[in-house]
Amino acid sequence: MDNPLLEYLGIRLATVGMGQCAFELDVEPRHLNRQGCLQGGVTATLLDAACGYAGLRDAQDGELGNAVTVMLTISYLSKVDAGRIRAIGSVAKTGRSLYFSIGQLLTDSGVLVATAQGTFKRTLSSSEA
């Protein structure tokens, strides 16, 4: 994976395929807010990555393309303060240059922590972002 922010946070790419993606994170004290729960920005980063990467696999050559986030809406549903979490993204609809994804952030025991809906725009290179 070539994403310095995700690597810095300890976020690992678990799977990526046509229209789907999953990232994992082992929650550590550095990921927590003042109340001792997963910081909302970490949740947003996980869901943004999962939803965005879900639309990057090119059917033509199988390579990962590039995209930028146009819109991301997150619903925070449960707290988490430890353990492994998994962000799962899937493409709901694809257009010529935009695609729409949905995502879920789950604990290992299946507790739904947050959901997301996002719109992403394909780009030719990361320098266009």
UniProtKB/TrEMBL annotation:
The keyword Hydrolase applies. It comes from the Bacteria. Signal peptide: none annotated. Keywords: Hydrolase. Residues 37-98 form the Thioesterase domain. Belongs to the thioesterase PaaI family. This is Hotdog fold thioesterase.
